[in-house]
Specification:
By secondary structure, the protein is mainly beta. The protein has 4 helices and 20 strands.
């Protein structure tokens, strides 16, 4: 019961952030980092600035948790602001968004007094980070250097712990600084950052949505009755799993269940003539007319979507694929206006209009249940729109939807009458539903607006 389909949009290609664990790192004194962003607050970050990510940054703006090694690397700002994050900073290499409050300024291609003030204020926190790095094991330092090399970034230089001073007559020889070179033979295993981007982000998403708009049951009849446009309103509960491609777009499969209400119907005037034979063997010609007949066909329905889904980096999304739609309750309400039933007894030359003895409509409104026996529609569904990302990683989506399909309901409607007179008891006029009388096939068409809240759970592949 499952299917897929469509769409593409361009984005930059770079290596995704990984989930490498650096080991036990000395926790920093957060007071330095908190103070570092106060002086020079008037500085606005620019493309090309060199920054260090603050240890106060527990999550990227897209919701993922940073790997520990990224805190010990000088990063370059690739983009400032975007549709999803107007104030965000896109970091080159790891292709992740942070807020301006998450960045420590380490250098700028355009020095200004405000920039130098900000750089000077952030320097203690950066020095503190270098001291942390100096306390790491050499293997952990190598890992940071290798990861920085793979994304073409510059690691921080570790400040090695000072040896306690000893009172000696002769000044001891100073040992050379340890310079850590990238280890070409060092390779990561499951958590390695690889340049061909075979490691991607994955996303599990749970969605609660509401949609509504116009709807039609697309009833095909053997008469001149026309379809009435109605509406539908549904609640969607959905789950989707996504994988990222080389350009970091997300592709996935969406399933779920929807419940709601839809209404369509038929309308026209009627003008029918037929001949019936009374129990006494007398032929009676009936003419049945009504100025206006309107029927509202309603249904409570369940839907099961099985759709291909795509989310682009700029916030646009597309869902396309089949929905299985099951009408579980199908009542109708039928109204008549200006109805006449005229009986003509040709053998006697007598015409009797609207009499209980020969047939008369006693009321103008009738209710019943539409008899679409198979109760199954197969729809092709489409959803598209835009979503806004929140700092907690979740998102709000607004878009449009449309569904089209034919049900498996089919019947032979030839010879059926909307108003049927029992000549044995003409006062008991049988009034049938228009859909039950004239409909040969039924379908479904709807289109409208959808609002949804997405609970996003990111993970690394």
């Amino acid at each position: 019961m499952f299917i897929i389909a469509m769409l593409i949009l361009a984005s930059s290609y770079v290596v995704a952030d990984d989930n490498i664990k650096v080991g036990n790192v000395a926790e920093p004194d957060s007071s330095l980092q908190a103070q570092a962003i106060k002086p020079g607050d008037g500085y606005k970050f620019q493309v090309g600035d060199t920054i260090v990510i603050s240890k106060e940054t527990k999550r990227y703006l897209t919701g993922e948790e940073p790997s520990k090694w990224v805190y010990y690397v000088r990063h370059i700002i690739q983009q400032v602001g975007g549709k999803r994050f107007p104030d965000g900073l896109l970091i080159k290499g790891i292709i992740s968004w942070i807020g301006p409050e998450d960045a420590l300024l380490a250098g700028t291609p355009k020095p200004t007094p405000v920039a130098e003030e900000r750089k000077e204020a952030d320097a203690p926190a950066i020095i503190e980070r270098r001291e942390e790095m100096g306390k790491m094991e050499p293997e952990e330092q190598k890992r940071i250097v290798n990861n920085a090399e793979k994304i073409k970034a510059e690691p921080l230089e570790p400040i090695m712990p000072q040896e306690p001073k000893q009172e000696v007559v002769q000044e001891p020889e100073q040992e050379p600084l340890i310079v850590i070179e990238p280890n070409e033979e060092y390779t990561e295993t499951v958590e390695e950052v690889v340049e061909d981007t075979t490691r991607r982000r994955q996303l599990d998403r749970f969605t609660i949505g509401v949609r509504g708009g116009m709807a039609s049951l697309m009833e095909k009849t053997d008469s001149k009755m026309k379809n009435r446009i109605g509406y539908d309103v549904l609640l969607d509960l959905q789950y989707a799993h996504y994988w990222a491609n080389r350009k970091d777009h997300l592709f996935g499969l969406l399933v779920g269940v929807s419940a709601g209400f839809a209404q369509g119907g038929l309308k026209d005037n009627i003008d029918e003539q037929y001949t019936l034979t009374s129990p006494e063997g007398i032929a009676v010609d009936y003419t049945v007319k009504s100025d206006k007949v309107k029927e509202a066909n309603r249904q409570v329905q369940l839907e099961v979507p099985i759709m291909f889904s795509m989310i682009l980096n700029n916030g646009f999304f597309l869902n396309v694929g089949p929905r299985l739609m099951l009408p579980v309750y199908t009542p109708y309400k039928e109204t008549f206006s200006g109805t006449d039933i005229v009986a003509t007894f040709n053998d006697y030359g007598v015409t009797v209009p609207n009499e209980i003895a020969t047939g008369k409509l006693l009321k103008d409104e009738y209710t019943g249940k539409t008899d679409n026996k198979l109760k199954l529609n197969i729809l092709l569904g489409l959803e598209l729109g835009y979503e806004w990302q929140f700092k907690n990683g979740h998102s709000l989506g607004l878009g449009a939807y449309a569904d089209y399909g034919w049900s498996l309901f089919k019947q032979d409607a030839s010879g059926n009458r909307l108003i049927d007179i029992n000549t044995g008891a003409p006062s008991k006029v049988n009034v049938n539903g228009a859909a039950n009388t004239f409909t040969e096939k039924m379908g479904y068409l709807d289109a409208g607006v959808k609002l949804a809240y997405h609970f996003n759970f990111w993970k690394m592949k």
